[in-house]
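#onboarding

Welcome to the new folks! Below is a worked example of what a typical request in this channel looks like: someone posts a single protein sequence, and someone else replies with the predicted structure as tokens. Don't worry about understanding the tokens yet, we'll cover that in week two.

Example request:
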Amino acid sequence: MNYRYLTTMSETTQMVSTLKKCLKAKGMTYRDLALKLNLSEPSVKRLFAEQSFSLKRLEQICQALDLSFYNLAKLSAEAESGVSVLTIEQEKALAENPKLMVFFYLVLNGRELSSITEDYKFTAPEAYDMLASLEKVKLVERYPHDKVKLLVFKNIVWNHHGPLRKKYEAQIQNEFLESSFAQADEKKYFSYGKLSESSRQILMKKIDRLTKDFNELLEIDKALPGENRQHVGLLINYRPWVFSLIRDLKRKVS
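Example response:
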């Protein structure tokens, strides 16, 4: 089965903007890129400023970023994507059918139908039924020749009191936290203290930036073969909070 996504090409300026985001997400500077391209840093800056890339030069830049032309165009086309909040009806359909939720997750992450039926327990007829169910709740549109268009942004936020949070949030978080986080590729950190309002605002911006970086790296690394990627989880929690042992010992103001 051939499973293709409908995409549209962006303008050159959007493509260059996407390249800059990829550089930043990979932690690369113009100087780093210049070394990989055997160019001077001013030459690389001029390329980006003038947006004057030959196909050969663009290919070299993509290779330096571990990107393909296709993924660069796809990232560029999706660069203006925002955040989708599903309707209660859409969440209810996914919450009531766990297999449909898994299927939607795979479609949302660009998996081809043939790859889904090969790697997961979905038969071909079942996969088409899943697509029909997703189309019914307006999450996708199907076109001739197995073309499929997502009707939501890839960055999805669950409703705070919606069906998905009620059914899955506790399970997901409990499974994720069921670890000592002692392995070399794991990280766990908790700190507690008092911050001023200005410091709290700075911290919130840093958290937003980290979350954005994480999502950008997810998109960029989709260009890599599956065997070169690993499923990861990132959980960030922040809120005004006082440990109960401290709170319970504090004298009440009369």
